[in-house]
Amino acid sequence: MDGLSVHLCYLKKLLRRRGRTLEEAEDLVQEAFVRLQVYCKEGGTVREPEAFLVRTVLNLAIDARRRDRRDLYENQSVEDLYLVDLSPSPDEVFAAEQRLLKIRCSLNRLSERTQEVFFLHRLEGFSYAEIAQRLRVSVSAVEKHIASAVATLAMERQKE
């Protein structure tokens, strides 16, 4: 492999490690070689062509990254933008709070053990086996507690 192809491979790898795609890396390396050639034709002297190419490729990559990120921002002022409010309406918030209150009342009618099992499973993410081991009950008992809680919530849902 000649020296030029070694430099090409090195420069491409350098850019790939910095998050550039293969196509982008090839384009940036080509642009760096063109800039080196133009610089030399205009009378510039380059003592270390490899260093010149590495610095040029890195600068081109930085510029490309800035161009990529520039599209992320809006040029208009905030006052001129039409912004959609995606938050729930007051009616939706009130309805959700009422549903939570009904759920809480329904769950409060369950035994403390059933509530504990239900919350360990649904809120804490414990498996039935983990709950059984933790509470020193059978998996079947855990299943019955969960079924009782789910049935109570289902009945409350049907009333709505």
The CATH topology label of the largest domain is Arc Repressor Mutant, subunit A
Tell me which oligomeric state these chains represent: single chain
End-to-end CA span: 77 Å
pLDDT averaged residue by residue: 86
Determine the CATH superfamily of the largest domain.
Winged helix-like DNA-binding domain superfamily/Winged helix DNA-binding domain
| CATH architecture grouping of the largest domain | Orthogonal Bundle
* Topology pattern, helix = H, strand = E: HHHHHHH
Our Rg estimate from Cα atoms comes to 33 Å
Count up the helices: 7
- Reading off the top of the CATH hierarchy, the class of the largest domain is best stated as Mainly Alpha
Approximate helicity band: over 70%
**Largest beta-sheet characterization:** none
Low-confidence stretches: none
Strand content: under 5%
Number of domains: 2
Helix/strand/pairing category? mainly alpha
Q: What overall form do the CA principal axes indicate?
A: elongated
- Count of beta strands: 0
